[in-house]
Amino acid sequence: MTKTTSAMGFALFQRLPPELRREIWAEGLRAADQPTIYLYSWRWALPALVPETMDEEAVTTRYAAIEQRERLVEAGSVPPIAYVNTEARAVAKAWMKSNHMEIRSSGGAKKGKPTLVRPWDPSRDHLYVGRDQWEDFCLLPFEDTEAGEALAASIRHLALPAWTAYYSYEQIGMLLDFLPRLESLSVIWDKVPQLRAAEGPAPPGFRAGDANWADEDEDEEMAFAGDDTYGRNRGDFWAEVQPRWRLLPVSDTGWKQGARMAIVDPMDGKVSIVRESETVEDMMDEVLAALGSVELPEYLWDPETGDLTLAVRPVTAVRC
User: Fold this and answer.
1) Angle, to 10 degrees, between the axis of helix 18-30 and the axis of helix 86-98?
2) Which distant-in-sequence residues (6+ apart) come within 8 Å of 169 by Cβ?
3) Given CA atoms 191, 193, 198, 204 in this order, what sign does their dihedral have?
4) Mind listing the pLDDT tens digit for each residue in 92-130?
5) Nearest to 126 by CA among 73, 180, 68, 49
6) DSSP state of 232
7) What is the DSSP letter of 145?
8) DSSP labels for 4-43?
9) Cα dihedral sign, 161-166-168-173
10) Low-confidence winner among 150-154, 217-221, 279-283 (lowest mean pLDDT)
11) Which of 29, 112, 206, 245 would give a disulfide with 202, using CB separation of 3.0 to 4.6 Å?
12) What per-residue string of b and e applies to 111-132 under the rule 16 or more CB within 10 Å gives b?
């Protein structure tokens, strides 16, 4: 197409009926909202932290400054369509409002760049549980609240580090009893997403132990800012919106050598990558065999074929 033809085509666009133009703008906007990952931390459980499930002091004092309790994710950059003209901007604003989106400035490496933020959608977004959050996540369904089980039952797409999937299969088997709506389990090989701490200080009165469904024998008086190791490993004041990641099938990455597995130091959060002698395919076979060796809930099995119905996929995580 020549520049002249392209210019004429764009000019003719204005002659289309307004409703058709708006639909074309909207279609381009929908393509910008892709599935993403919510990085699990104590923030994921905030909707359950209400007076009925916690002591009054925790609700009125320790969490009084945490106003945002909705699980938010980065949906991607603001589409260029939003800046084309007045009509396109109006369509973009209406589309964002109907999808509960807002424009914010990114943090971290992309600090200051406008990005779309929306609520986490369990029907298409994964919940990723890092190794340093695994213990707290495993305890969630067993808390003395109905909210714990309800939160676990809302998960439909779960993502775990390969290390967890390979070595913690017994805990996974136990958890599956509380995840009746789970449709897929993605196993992340190579590098894994990392939680980003908030750029500002924690609100006055915030205590890490309270935010992490802490064990009774833990020192609940230990303040978040008083111990870096405790803060990093158990309850940092994590950023409200985490950097955006997406999952790609291992087959789409051109990765044909031995499997690479991320190991996270539980003390300082440092990540090292270990190359295994086996391929991802071979190690995934071992993961499936291990899951098949533990007692899994009936809903995960096909009554006719006896096959596992849960989609277990090898993936890599890519920072967007």
Assistant:
1) 50
2) 287, 290, 291, 293, 294
3) negative
4) 998 899 889 998 877 655 666 888 999 999 999 999 999
5) 73
6) I
7) S
8) HHHHHHHHHHTTS-HHHHHHHHHHHHHTT----EEE-SGG
9) positive
10) 217-221
11) 206
12) eeeebbbbebbbeebbbbbbbb
Dig out the tokens for 60 from the structure: 């009125």
* b/e sequence 21-60, b meaning 16+ C-beta within 10 Å: bbeebbebbeebbeebbbbbbbbbbbebbeeebbeeebee
pLDDT tens column, 1-55 = 444 334 334 677 788 888 888 888 888 888 778 899 999 988 887 766 555 555 5
Q: Say if CB 103 and CB 16 are below 8 A apart.
A: no
Please compute the mean of the pLDDT values over residues 163-172 and round it to a whole number: 95
Question: How many residues would you count in the chain?
Answer: 320
Domain borders along the chain are 17-200+236-319
